[in-house]
Amino acid sequence: GEPARARRADPAARIIAVATADGREILEAGTGWHHEPGSAEIVFTHPPPGPPILDAERFLPENAPHAYRHRAGDPRQWLLYRPGRWFHDRDLEITYERAADAAPPPVVCHGSLPRTRARLAEGKPLVIGVSGDSISTGLDASEITAAPPCQPGWPDLVVAQLRVAVPARVTHVNRAVAGWSVADGLADLDALLDAEPDLVIVAYGMNDVGRRDPQWYREQTGAIVRRVQDRRPGADVLLVATMLGNDEWIHTPREMFDRYRDELAGLVGEGVALVDMTAVWESLLRSKEVFDLTGNGLNHPNDFGHRLYARGVLEMLLERP
Question: Above pLDDT 70, what percent of the chain?
Answer without folding.
Answer: 99
